[in-house]
Amino acid sequence: MTLFIQHIRNATSLISINGKKILVDPMLSDVGELPPVPFTRSLRRNPIVPLPVTLDTFENIDAILLTHLHFDHFDKTAKTVLNKQVPVFCQPADQKHIKSCGFNNVYPVDDTSQWCGINFKRISGQHAKGIVAKLLGPVSGFILSTSDVESLYIVGDCIFTDQLNEAFKQYQPQVCIVNTPRAQLLLGSIITMSPKDIIKVLRVSPSSKIVAVHMDAISHCTLTRKDLSQYLVAHNVLESVIIPKDGELIHF
Question: Which domain holds residue 134?
Answer without folding.
Answer: 3-244
